[in-house]
Amino acid sequence: MKRILVVDNEEYIQEVTKICLETIAGWEVITAGSGMECVSKAETELPDAILLDVMMPDIDGIATFEKLQANSVTKNIPVILLTAKIQASDRRRYAEQGIKDAIAKPFNPTELANQVSAILGWKEISNE
């Protein structure tokens, strides 16, 4: 079973994402509400992937990603950004930094698991 760490300062987004990924994909979902909580949980929980919000107070998603990369325990965990603002130039910059991809918010809850699977090369999830 895949374990996904979902990081967003908005509890509503955490809940929607958790319900979608658990119900549709059958994955275990761990949530965090801040960049520092993300780094801590990534170290202890060792998720298969991290869905990381870009716009967060205190430490944003990019700075959080840099902290994950600087840590030998978490640097190989694939990170997908969740962001309201995304352009082609952003995608290129993210890829150059080692971020797997970005998913635009608002996302389609029923498509999220397949988007994550496609980005990470995991098998497709059936939505029956």
Structure description:
By secondary structure, this protein is of the alpha/beta class. The chain has a single domain, classed as 3-Layer(aba) Sandwich (Rossmann fold), CATH 3.40.50.2300. Helix content is 43%, strand content 19%. The chain has a 5-stranded parallel sheet, sandwiched between helices. Strand 4, helix 4 (88-97) and strand 5 (101-104) form a beta-alpha-beta unit. Helix 2 (35-45) runs parallel beside helix 3. The chain is globular. The two termini are 19 Å apart.
Give a nutshell description of this structure.
The protein is an alpha/beta fold and 128 residues long. It has helices spanning 11-25, 35-45, 61-70, 88-97, 112-120; strands at 3-7, 28-32, 49-53, 79-83, 101-104. Strand 1, helix 1 (11-25) and strand 2 form a beta-alpha-beta unit.
Keywords:
single chain, 128 residues, alpha/beta, Rossmann fold, five-stranded parallel β-sheet, 5 helices, 19% strand, globular, CheY-like_superfamily, phosphoprotein
